[in-house]
Amino acid sequence: MKILTGTFTSDEFDETQFVSSHYTGSETFSIDYVDLPMNLITKFLEVFNNSGYKCSQIIDVQYHRTQISKEDRIRVPEEHEFGWHCDNVNYGYPVYSMLIYLQKDSTLKQFDFLIDADEIPIGVEDQTKMIKPTNIIKIPVAPIDGRLKCVIFDGNVLHTAEPYFGYGKRTCLLITGKKI
């Protein structure tokens, strides 16, 4: 299994291009990628294809934001709403996924990316709720020196967000490409 991590410069992504025209008031929403600037869609495809993850098209772009005020801080680690899952199940066909972390405040503790290094056997992706991760790898997601963390992985990989606590904001983009 291949998991790639890398970085983008923060000036390559202006969060307002996702939020201002698409924000609906919910913390997670899909963006009609047709509305995104073509150079951004082209960049996403180039990143997939240049990293060995061959995609025919971008099929989904989602914006995820968790924001917790200081008054509402979480004192005991909480599981993220998505739990352990595989993205292939969500789409019904093989995909690749790319997460670009736009922000993670230092006051929001843990909340990094967890991935199971053991591949799920073919044919059981739809049973991920019953599969327990066995070889967990933690990938820190906080931007460093203006560089945004990026993680690219196969849609059959079991993954989740780490339980978190504290207060602050964490935002990321999930870009999904259809496998060739």
Explain how this protein is built.
With 180 residues, the chain is mainly beta. It is 14% helix and 42% strand. The longest helix is centred in the first third of the chain and has 13 residues, at 38-50.
Secondary-structure blueprint of this entry?
Layout: E1 4-9, H1 16-22, E2 28-31, H2 38-50, E3 55-68, E4 74-78, H3 87-91, E5 95-104, E6 108-110, E7 113-116, E8 136-139, E9 147-154, E10 159-161, E11 164-166, E12 168-179
Antiparallel strand pairs: 1-9, 2-3, 3-12, 4-11, 5-9, 5-12, 6-11, 7-8, 7-10
Report the mean per-residue pLDDT as an integer: 79
Pattern of helices and strands = EHEHEEHEEEEEEEE
Which structural class do you get from the secondary structure elements?
mainly beta
Most strands sheet: 6 strands, antiparallel
Strand order of the largest sheet: 1-9-5-12-3-2
Count of DSSP-assigned helices: 3
Query: Between the first and last Cα atoms, what is the distance in angstroms?
Result: 17 Å
> Uncertain segments of ≥5 residues (pLDDT<50)?
20-26
| Proportion in helices | 10-25%
Give Rg in angstroms: 16 Å
Number of strands: 12
Oligomeric description of these chains: single chain
Overall spatial form: globular
Q: What is the percentage of strand-forming residues?
A: 35-45%
What does this entry show, briefly?
The chain is mainly β and 180 residues long. Helices cover 14% and strands 42% of the residues.
List keywords for this structure.
single chain, about 180 residues, mainly beta, 3-stranded antiparallel β-sheet, 3 helices, 12 strands
